[in-house]
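Ligand: zinc ion. Inputs:
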Amino acid sequence: MANQQDYQGQTQWFEGDWKCKDCGQAITKLPFKPDENRLGELRCRDCHSKNRPPARGGFRGGR
Ligand SMILES: [Zn+2]
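Predicted complex:
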């Protein structure tokens, strides 16, 4: 078995002092370990979900 992380149903949060590259909001917690080389590319949760490409189709009132 691969070594299991502390994934006992809980997200592991990494605390730090970062900044969202989009809105400039401070980010103090991340659900993943940020890559040191990409600290300038971090985004807060808001921007992160905003940046997600919308699902194709969407709810366009059906047929
Ligand atoms: Zn943001």
